[in-house]
Amino acid sequence: MKELFCKVNNKIGLTSRISAELVAEANRANKCTLTLFCGDNTADLKSIMNMMSLVIKDQDEFSIQIDGENEEEVEAKFIALLTQLKLLK
User: Fold this and answer.
1) What's the CA gap between 61 and 88, in Å, rounded?
2) Which domains, and CATH codes, for the chain?
3) For residue 14, what is the DSSP state?
């Protein structure tokens, strides 16, 4: 299992556009389970409905757990995406 730690640096929080990008990347990881944790809330990162149900505000911290066969490859892709989105802590 791999875990990435993130922090939102956006005045309006985690937007629907950013959530959609995370979900799209998660859905490319066929052999992995990806879960987002923020405080007491969890979401299946492959479900846009789960992601949209979360309210993640500016400066909130969250983590993404990656579990599966090719988790190193998925982790590398998520690090690149999270860096691009300026979410990687």
Assistant:
1) 10
2) 2-84 (3.30.1340.10)
3) S
Q: Amino acid letter at 10?
A: N
Burial-class residue 42 by CB neighbours within 10 Å (0-12, 13-18, 19+): middle
Q: What is the pTM of this model?
A: 0.94
Q: Count how many Cα atoms sit within 13 Å of the Cα of residue 76 in the half-sphere of its side chain.
A: 3
Residue length of the chain:
89
> Which tens digits make up the pLDDT trace of 3-33?
999 999 999 999 999 999 999 999 999 999 9
Residue 35 identity: T
DSSP state string for 27-81:
HT-TTEEEEEEETTEEEETT-HHHHHH----TT-EEEEEEEETTHHHHHHHHHHH
Tokens of 54: 């979360």
